[in-house]
Amino acid sequence: MSMMHASSVKDAATANDVPPTASLMRWVIVATLPGIATMSYFFGLGVISNVVLAAAFGVALEAAVLRLRKRPIRVTLNDSSALLTGVLLGASLPPASPWWLIGVGMVAAIVVAKQLYGGLGHNPFNPAMVGYALLLVSFPTYMTLWAPPQELLPSGLWAQITGTLPTAQLDSLSGATPLDAFKHKGDAVLASEFWATNPLPNGTLSAWRWVALAWLAGGVLLLAKRIISWHIPVAMLGSVLLLATLFYLGDPSHFASPLFHLLTGATLFGAFFIATDPVSAATSRRGKLLYGAGIGALIIIIRTVGGYPDAVAFAVLLMNLCVPLLDLYSVPRPTGQQRAPSGKPGEQP
Amino acid sequence: MSNAFDFPGGIYPPERKQRSNQAALIEAPLPNRVTLPLQQHSGQAATPCVMPGDAVKVGSVIAKREGMISSDLHASISGTVSDVSATHITIESDGQDAWQRLPPLDWQRTEPYALFERLNESGIVGLGGAGFPTHIKARVIERHAIHTLVINAAECEPYITADDLTLRHYAGEVLEGAQIIAKLCGAQHIVIGIEDNKPEAIEALKHALPLVLSTSQPITAELKTIPTRYPSGGERQLIKKLLNLDVPSGGLPADVGVLCHNPGTLLAVLQAVRDGQPLVARIVTLTGDAIAQPGNRWVRLGTSIKELLETAGLNHSELKQVIQGGPMMGTPLPTLDTPVTKLTNCLIAATLEEFPPAPAESPCIRCGECESVCPVALLPQQLHWYARAEDNAKLERYHLFDCIECGACSYVCPSHIPLVVDYREAKRRIRLQRIETAKAEHAKHRFEFRQARLAREEAEKQARKEARKSQQRRTSTNSTTSSAASSEKVDLRGLRIAHAAAKASVKKAEKTLARVAQEDPKQPLDDLEMQLATAQENLKAAELQLAQAREQPSSEESS
Predict the structure, then answer these.
(1) ipTM of the complex, rounded to two decimals
(2) For the whole model, what pTM was predicted?
(3) Greatest CA span in chain A, whole angstroms?
């Protein structure tokens, strides 16, 4: 009974308390705007068209599956979670990706990863990252080539609609991300030599840095509005920095600097917008710290010794796998109990 | 002040105490009629001892306690008993307000047993909301060593200001009542825990402390102001905050040497001892947007809530619902035609704008917000899944029964899931299941009780027969040598042992009952009460047999 009054007291005088689920989702969407704006400033309108297209796919697919599942459509769509998944996946894809690529990604995200598991709150894996990982392993060519900065590409947009790849992007290394370029520099090449050759088109590195900082700004907004708690981002960024520093100190001539790991690729985007998805993350504070730290560690390990230049999607998905275990072993000790409840079956409370 | 210790979690709901703590404490008008429920306390309902038509005064006993965990009930107005039903006694006022008090006692010079008896016959129960009989709680010394008495003046729920106003007006009396309880339970130390949003009450306590302390010899007292945070007034939370002691799960504060009392209860204790005044009235907070004159009132028990709110200017057209208790843990009243009881600490006459209906529930997104505010460090979200799946084993493993139902988790839930409602339902289900499994046990206890009653009756019959016999023996010429009796070698020693054993099992049954009743106020107690009654029947039978056996040799000697 208490609940009714409690939540209504809150609604009547809302201040610092948690806003309802739908408005949580909407705040996350709002917080992506600086990142998306900065990206499209550097990489062109293809970023925005990606996001719009993916969001539209998200809402349409969610509505279609809800209809098949005979669930209330309007109420469920109102929670904006499908919209958010679309925005996040759209923002992760190379600018002006072909429409069918986005569509395939969103089917994997909304239909397979989310609705087939039971909808919002029941999906063990981060939907956007499932979509991204599927695209990455299935269509590597499309997924690893980014238009160089400062090219607002009307032709690229046309290619998006026709579903082909802009030929300009296929040309050379010019479409690679800094992480990609560094990854494929070859073992013989020292880091200092690699940077001396000025391998990336002018402005690429700084463009990525600005984008990363814009994601950081959005993340700070989420923290300030208490939409997310600090545990996952801090643990994740902390372990990225720690591990990158260890590698870098071990062999600075081969490994990238911690700052490079932090400010390129999807590190900051992932820390604030992907890893913090509550549904697929650990729930207890201790569990969240472990979860974030695990993602950070996996990112550095995959980036330095694994096969993929960026690794946020795989790191998040691997840690999603560990969440039930983390939840089981990070239970706090209830007041008045000798120890935390153990999850072992058959054990008496 | 004392931020050294802390309990986990907690929330900061809007307090809204200003509405009712501005006006002075006044007496509500005397009602023309009171309806007194027989069950105003935890445990068994009281048994009426008046008939319709009886004249009663304020303070006359109208119902006696039934079983051990129960409480006497007194008339709260003078007049005529008009109705005695299975659940209520109704009294019509004669407008005289004539009192019948018990003789005043000086607690410093009164023996503890007399004080216990006074608490018992005054019908005092915990006025904070649980309604546990105070005389049972005071007898904790028989089972536990108590070092500290905590006065729980935190009053952390929004809206409620009854304790606040009690302390502003009666700080000295509350402290004196605390000294009585401290004397009875052997506590050497009194700690008053109060939230910092009650500056006037804190001032009054600071003023009263030295005066009271100078009269009490060995007992020390300390005022601790704590930051306002819900639910710091939870017994366990407050004990953690003030004393850094963890009350064990399923245990009582007494297990760590602490006793907790509400200021209103302590005031009632003093009034019962010093003035001989049984519990016939209490302080009730009247608040909410639908009444014109909010504030705190002295209200006679049994007053109609509807009439009471009307005297405070109730606006019927604005009224959406009346909540008894606070907005976090209280319950909405289905009808206003219910009386104020010993448990009514606050009545919120709320408008629709004040408590709009809860929005529709959406799926849990596992945000973990509930977990971060849980004052017991439980996993509300896991409990939610298990409660919905009716997985009782998991619910118990994750300590559902440690939940204090404070509602902090429901309050912060972004998906508006009524978590506490789910937990209460799950607890109810598990309790029912326990009763089902205990049914065979219960039948056995019923059988044992019947056997004990028959044995006692047999012993009584035997005693009467013996008495008649000895009478005859005396009237006749004493010539008959009572061969039968002498040949029957009376085993006095064996009977004495049986008597002592029966006495011990009564004590044991009392202990268990008192403990269970305090640990889980919602647990049905009839089975334990029956076990106690069985032990008492056995004791009576043993007493009779022993008395009879003692009689026999003596009569033989005299003859």
Answers:
(1) 0.80
(2) 0.82
(3) 69
